[in-house]
Design a protein that fits this description.
There is one protein chain. This protein is mainly beta. The protein is built from 2 helices and 16 strands. The strands form 3 sheets. A 5-stranded mixed beta barrel has the order 1-2-3-5-4. Strands 6-7-8-11-10 form a 5-stranded mixed β-barrel. A 5-stranded mixed β-barrel has the order 12-13-14-16-15.
Length: 276
């Protein structure tokens, strides 16, 4: 009889223990299982001291609290901090919604890029115009805008010429497209035109110790008298040319052809023309 009473007592105590601990376990599980959401927008403001980040999307704006362990992945940096964020950057924020309080766990910068042909450069106003898919995009050159050449070699603005094909990484502070990096990765060959095939859209040129065959890209910029709308049939044998090209699986694809004696980055050659 005593044995039976002891067994029932043990069972009741176990039940009370399970009942008292269950609500806490459920709360902990709910907290741990809170789903992470994501939001992509443009940085409006950031306050590293207050650990806040405000972003603007197409329709809505959101303000986040930056978590103590928030991870920052920014262009050109494996690991950043809140101090590296700046207005105009496009970011994706992974966050938790704790009863309306948005807590950021991760902020990842999303690159915004234009890829096209340089139509104009104005060193005085520090503006760059790029022709992209039939439209002209004008960008302001940011202070410290980096110029990257082939093989990640740093360059200068003078290395960018009208007609070059470039990839421009930009941001939009105050809704104004602003170039942060210009990449011009084509190879340059300077030589004398020896042959041209208008039907096949190929040409050959020779330098002192080498000669090359080039296939002319459909969007190749042919610079004649400072303008980029020249035609292939305007080129003549013995013309001295500078050819910018990409070598793709052994094939040289030329995207810019200009006279060798031209000063391609002079203001007169690069400033956009105006019409009355």
């Amino acid at each position: 009889m005593k044995t039976t009473r002891a067994i029932w007592t043990a069972i009741c105590m176990a039940g009370l223990t399970w009942t008292s601990t269950f609500p806490a376990s459920a709360d902990q599980t709910a907290t741990a299982a809170r789903p992470e959401k994501s939001y992509t927008g443009t940085v409006v403001s950031v306050d590293p001291k207050e650990n806040t980040l405000e972003t603007r999307g197409f329709v809505l704006s959101k303000k986040f609290n930056l978590g103590a362990g928030c991870d920052y992945q920014l262009l050109g940096k494996n690991a950043g901090t809140a101090d590296d964020l700046r207005p105009g950057e496009k970011v994706t924020v992974n966050y938790q919604d704790a009863a309306g309080v948005l807590i950021a766990n991760r902020v990842e910068q999303q690159p915004m890029r234009y890829e096209g042909m340089v139509k104009a450069i104005d060193p005085n106003t520090r503006t760059l115009t790029v022709h992209v898919r039939g439209m002209d995009k004008q960008l302001q050159l940011a202070d410290g805008c980096s110029i990257m050449l082939r093989d990640n070699k740093p360059g200068a603005l003078a290395d960018i010429s009208v007609g070059n094909h470039v990839t421009v990484t930009y941001e939009t502070p105050d809704n104004k497209p602003t170039a942060r990096e210009i990449a011009q990765t084509s190879i340059t060959f300077t030589g004398t035109l020896t042959a041209i095939d208008l039907e096949e859209k190929t040409l050959k040129a020779k330098a002192s110790f080498s000669s090359k065959k080039f296939n002319v890209a459909d969007n190749c910029a042919i610079v004649i008298n400072g303008k980029t709308d020249g035609q292939l049939n305007e080129l003549k044998p013995n013309d001295k040319l500078v050819l910018s090209y990409d070598e793709i699986n052994g094939v040289n694809v030329v995207n810019r052809i200009a006279p060798a004696e031209a000063q391609p980055n002079s203001v007169a050659a690069t400033a956009p023309t105006t019409s009355n």
